Predict the 3D structure of the following.
Amino acid sequence: MRKYHLLAPGPTPVPPRVLEAMARPLMHHRTKEFEALFEEVRSGLSWLYQSEGDVIMLAASGSGGMEASAANLLSPGDSALVVEGGKFGERWVEICRAYGFETDVISVEWGRSVDLGEVESRLRAGGHRAVFVQASETSTGAKHDVRQLAEVVRRTSPDTLVVADAITALGVYDLRPEEWDLDAVITGSQKALMLPPGLAFVWLSERAWAVAEKAGSPRFYFDLRIERKSQAKNTTAWTPAISLVEGLRVALEMMRGEGLENIFARHARLAGGMRSALRAQGLGIFPRDLLSESVSAVSVPEGIDGKAIPRLMQNEQGITIAGGQGHLSGKIFRIGHMGYVDESDMLAAIGGLERVLSSLGHELEKGAGLTAAQEEFGR
Amino acid sequence: MRKYHLLAPGPTPVPPRVLEAMARPLMHHRTKEFEALFEEVRSGLSWLYQSEGDVIMLAASGSGGMEASAANLLSPGDSALVVEGGKFGERWVEICRAYGFETDVISVEWGRSVDLGEVESRLRAGGHRAVFVQASETSTGAKHDVRQLAEVVRRTSPDTLVVADAITALGVYDLRPEEWDLDAVITGSQKALMLPPGLAFVWLSERAWAVAEKAGSPRFYFDLRIERKSQAKNTTAWTPAISLVEGLRVALEMMRGEGLENIFARHARLAGGMRSALRAQGLGIFPRDLLSESVSAVSVPEGIDGKAIPRLMQNEQGITIAGGQGHLSGKIFRIGHMGYVDESDMLAAIGGLERVLSSLGHELEKGAGLTAAQEEFGR
């Protein structure tokens, strides 16, 4: 008997109340009932994004939301500046190239945060329609400071749009699309929103909406102009993922009950506890500059089989964590602490990790990680 | 107290066993457990498509699958022949224009099936990369004969691809993508597959896969080449809609238990019973040539408020049916009989409709529709 714990950096655990809501008999989406549901959801999304601006819901996973923001804001041949500091930065590059944008890449060492001086000097060369960046680079556990990046952009190249992948950032730490003058902010359902994957969300600034009206990339399913018109009337242009929207209503209700400040504080507390524990276990935190509150990326100690860590956590402890992606495979592992998670989940992960690391020959003091976490939680 | 009946031409009712499967605690998708689930699902999809060829699953609604087939098979400036005989034919036109294809439209009177002679003469003009058509035009209740259309294409313009929207066709009537020499066949989760919306499926012929390798339209999230490589290894390129895939396993298991022949016979029997009933109620069936087994589109009798019919069915009888779309709004209404439906559902719809039509002043003989349906079911 093993109780299962999902502690990956997404998908994240779904609360029983949300699972129940999704298991209700299906309603039709062209009804007053769905409109009332979607109106409530839209209000919740505005609350989450801390903006009265439209948040567009798409039936797609987060990558679909990323593509939607690119396809709606740039035309073939436009110049894009891409911050590439991990697997998801690479995804921006792939999307921009697939659409035929001139793609100017700032290669950031994986695990580092982008140097804003470098952003500024690239922007000075001029002509970038948009900067693409991760607010939280899930593959490395690093954050890029999108608030300061937006300030650099406004100062240096005011018409350049700031497009932030906030898939593991929104609802995790305080991120204010409107107040920080960002232009596109994307998230997905399977992270802080505590739902299964299948919904993406895109918020655009008024500046970005004006650009979207004229951008020349082909788009249909992801045409945000079409969706904006429909969603203003509490419906969707294409058939929505109805059961996920039912779950979303409940998830947003739970989040509003907790309050944004408490949600952000909880993520910071859990991240802090986890990192104290990891250090007490003799492990190194992989990212070096700004650490994302959503995920801890951990360097595999010398002489330990890195790929065995997530495998044994899964097979022997019943705890899903994640390995490294791309060239970080086997070199890091990642523990998610985002969404429907609390102190007990952290203790489960820390305890399981202690047992796994011991079995792999890593020397550590029994219970030291758990004690360190408890001390941090108690502050 | 009103028991709720969902009898729209999609979304369709979800069986309790499928709802239960989707309500299980979420699994991670980069695990052996998900690979085993997806392998079973892929085998079920091959069975459903009656082909060993790859069926690609996308986290999107059906329109996303339509766009994927267009974006992967044509390049900007390519010529597309579109059969436009309803709302979903119009959708093909919109997609083709959004992608900058030369769009040659065969306008079919809504409710009619396409004249294959017209298809042949357009093809003779030459140069069409693909023909886009609905196997079942959900908005009018008509079918286009995609089997014969493919024969015309092969005879007249062998390299032209045949792209069939089978969203309300596959799993409803006998449609054989490979045997009929079609090139792309799209379906969605919320129709015969008895799931909530949120998954689209695209099957391509080997001829179409070869074209997809070289087609020049921009695509990323819907790039079928990327998905094909991942899905061959029982995973997906982007995060899949995990809970819907859990439901899909159960739905396909239920369908395999029933058997394709029985499924097709059930849909034909229910459609036949429904139409006998409608005629016995003094109503006219709207489509004039080939009738889809998935939906009955009904002409609103003279002097009756057409928009009131679905509204009263919903509000007073607890039965969701659909009105007309586009210029057919108020002129027809549509009853779905697809997916998780049986004779009892047909009687519920026929009985509810009798009560609604009576209240609106349409003269009919009490019980005549129900009797006619029973006679048809008993054949």
